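User: Hi! I'm working on a homework problem where we have to compare a predicted structure to a textbook description. Could you give me the structure for the chain below?
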Amino acid sequence: MKLDLKGIHEYQQNRHPYLFIDYVDEVIPGKIANGFKDLKDDWFFKVHWPTDPNVPGMLQIEAMVQMAALTILTLPNNKGKVVYLASADKITFKRKIVPGDRLYLKTKLKSWNRGIGKCEGVGTVNDKLACKAEFTLVLPEKIKKYTVR
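Assistant: Happy to help. Predicted structure tokens:
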């Protein structure tokens, strides 16, 4: 499955200026989601080191999270639901991402159980590693079904 901006909006709730993916080349529900964000004159470049503009690290993680969330949101009955980041580990930033770059994102859902997804993501620019992380996503609506009352 491929998703343009309209398709991305169908599956997840982030919107401009906090949507950090432009296009999804491939989604295999419950497995992988890959795509990109073209960095142009985005709002954060004006305020994050204006004399040396670059994408803040936490926004790089957010881009990987938004992409990985599509592996969950494309599963049956999850379209349009809220997915939260619960934790992030093994975070690495290898190079600056600057205006004009295309951040290509490859994400994988390693496990999915009871509303909790273990994921990994990698971001590259010009085929060179820019960032990577492992993280946990949660789908609160699903977790509620397993909460002890």
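For your comparison, note the following. Residues 5-144 form a domain with the Thiol Ester Dehydrase; Chain A fold (CATH 3.10.129.10). Residues 57-73 form the longest helix (17 residues). Good luck with the assignment!
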